[in-house]
Amino acid sequence: MATNYPTGLDTLSNPTGTDNLDTSGLLHDAQHANANDAIEALQAKVGINSSTETTSLDYKIKQLSEALVIVCSDEVTALTVGTGKAKFRLLMPTKFIYVTAYVNTAPTGSSLIADVKINGTSIFTTVISIDAGDTNSVSAAAPPVFNSSLVQWGGGEELSVDITQVGSTAAGTGLKVYLYTTRIP
Q: Which bin fits 53, alpha (ψ -120 to 50), beta or left (φ > 0)?
C-alpha cells in the first residue's frame, strides 16, 4: 500500500503478539514498507531545519510575519519634532521585512519624516516619510529602505522612533509605525 498522506490519512494495521510474519493482511515486509512510506511522507511535509522546500511546514513557519505597532503619539495632538517619541525593547531574535506608517491627520506643506533606530542607530538608508496631504507612507515619493546590515537582531535591543519633520503648514496627528517582522530561530 502506498501512503495516502498528506492528502489523506493512512489506516495501518497493527499486528498482535500472536500474529505470524505471513498473516494475511499483516505481511511483515508490507508492514515495514507501509510504515516507511508514511514516515517519509511526514518528513517531507515537516521538512528539515532551515528548509528551503516551500511546501514544508518548517519553511512556512519561518515565513510567518507579525506587525509591531509602534504608537508614537495620541490621536489628536499635533505631532512635534523630537527623539524617542516611542521606545521599547525587542524581546526575541527578529528580522525586519517591511515597514509602513500612518497618521490620522495628514501633514500639510511638507512631508512627515520619521526614523526607527535600534540602540541609537537608524535601521534605514532611506527613512519613513508620509507625503504632504497623505495619511500613509505606502505611496510615498521616497519609500523607506532598510539598511541591509541592520535588519536582523538577537533580542533585547532598544527600538525608538524619532520624528524629524511634521509638515510645514500643519503637522500631522496620530502617528503609528507598523514594523513587520519574522522571528529568527
A: beta
Grid cell in block for residue 26: 499483516
pLDDT of residue 1: 65
Q: Is the peptide bond before 6 cis (omega within 30 degrees of 0)?
A: yes
CATH number of 64-183: 2.60.120
All three cell numbers of 100: 509602513
Closest C-alpha among 25, 22, 29 to residue 11: 25
* pLDDT tens digit sequence for 72-101: 999 999 999 999 999 989 888 888 989 999
Q: Which of 130, 105, 131, 115 is nearest to 83 (CA)?
A: 115
Determine the residue type at 115: D
Q: What is the pLDDT of residues 168-183, one digit of tens each?
A: 999 999 999 999 988 7
CA dist 55 and 58 (Å) reads 9
For residue 97, give every residue at least 6 positions away whose Cβ sits within 8 Å of its Cβ, in sequence order, or none.
65, 151, 180, 181, 182
Structural domain spans, the chain: 1-63, 64-183
Whether the CB-CB separation of 138 and 100 falls below 8 Å is answered with yes
The whole-number pLDDT of residue 45 equals 81
For the entire predicted model, the pTM comes to 0.70
Please state whether 76 falls in left (phi above 0), alpha (psi between -120 and 50) or beta: alpha
